[in-house]
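Posted in: Protein Modeling Q&A

I'm a second-year student putting together a small comparison for a lab meeting, and my supervisor asked me to include a predicted structure for Calcium-binding mitochondrial carrier protein SCaMC-2. I've never done this before, so apologies if this is the wrong subforum. The sequence is pasted below exactly as I got it from our records. If anyone can share the structure token output, I'd also love a short note on what stands out.
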Amino acid sequence: MARPRSLVSPLLSGVFCQCDTVGGAPHTHETPASPSLAAALAADPCGGLLCGGPEHERRLHILFQELDVNKDGAICMNDLAVGLKRLGVHRTELELRKIVKAGDKDQDGQLDFEEFVHYLRDHEKKLRLVFKSLDKKNDGRIDAQEIMQSLRDLGVNISEQQAEKILMSMDKNGTMTIDWNEWRDYHLLHPAENIPEIILYWKHSTIFDVGENLIVPDEFTVEEKQTGMWWRHLVAGGGAGAVSRTCTAPLDRLKVLMQVHASRSNNMSILGGFTQMIREGGFRSLWRGNGINVIKIAPESAIKFMAYEQMKRIIGSDQETLGIHERLVAGSLAGVIAQSSIYPMEVLKTRMALRKTGQYQGMLDCGKKMLLKEGLSAFYKGYVPNMLGIIPYAGIDLAVYETLKNAWLQRYATSSADPGVFVLLACGTISSTCGQLASYPLALVRTRMQAEASVEGGPQMTMSKLFKHIVKTEGAFGLYRGLAPNFMKVIPAVSISYVVYENLKLTLGVQSR
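Accepted answer (user: helix_wrangler)
Welcome! Here is the predicted structure, written out as tokens:
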């Protein structure tokens, strides 16, 4: 059977230096299809972008001019399609759109020279990291076995024949291995979203639970969905969350008490709060409200996951992994749906945490008395500020996470795209903490509104009036009552949930990601 010919154009081989900078034997420079590119290469055979020579700007100008079909000083989608086709590189409309979108900083629908160069350099750096991650043997080449292993790590199992077919599409010299130059030339003008290793290692993961409900859901590969591996991840995450929330429940209850009862005249300290709880109800009272807080993990996680998948379809994404803006939209909407579904449980949790000894016999008794005395509307007290809090929480959480991720990749990623578990945990913890900080005033107002009706003769205020009342009587600091115990529980919560999550994954037979 005839071996398929690689479809890689010599275009990039002429623009970028072909010295092997990853590892392996150096390459000779090939003659490009375009005479102008050939002339540029002959002028300085080792002055390409990768080697940092003085000719790289001129070479990039030549490539830019080749792709700027209508010669208007910018590359639009049509220019890119026609220019690449002339040079033997075929891309779909979706791929072309993604390339332009990835590099288009001023959002004018086209790439000027500066944007074009920035896109190529940024994309080439990511490709280098992925190549090194795939190169398990560290010999500067990728073979079929390494492709199979890497896809297996992603949760996708393929045969050796399928791996060889993938390899042949990039292999220009018939060695049945891919060196750095072949890898880069093939992928450089593919959109950045086609880098599964970066996505794999930097998934905004469910490996920790800080007791909040607004985190954007994780994504799963097609293989994980088909094999049922996704629900095992959710079960492991739910179990980790249950243990984590139980261990940090005293701090969570103290936070609720400080949000509702602390004021300028009643300045509750952390030690004083714990002493007051133990004196009123004994040591077990520190865990009031934890039962409902743990029970609601399962329905909330399941509803959020299903809603997130539906939102992805509704916003029209046919990509397995979304970009940051799509994740924010889909995640926020999924959060609204999940929170709306289980919100009565959220109100019950607050009431149970605030109850006095003997006030309720349990969760069901609490719910029954609320329904009889206050009506159905009591179960949706504080609903509006809770929903409004999802946007700043999810937005800042994702934005900070992406910023930290990119900073790490730019500064420290030299041999692999895998940042390691401690970097992932640190980025996730910092981003989640920033999200909580931004949405905390809304969370405090929500908790006070949930607790209002439980106070006999207490004022019933709207969200805006309660905001004004808190600022007027307690100052801006009043919007952050209970912040100290809230942040005190973050580190132990993350540590405990991670350890439990990893152990539950092993028990459930989930492959390590």
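A couple of things worth pointing out for your meeting: DSSP finds 23 helices and two strands in the chain. The two ends are 37 Å apart (CA to CA).
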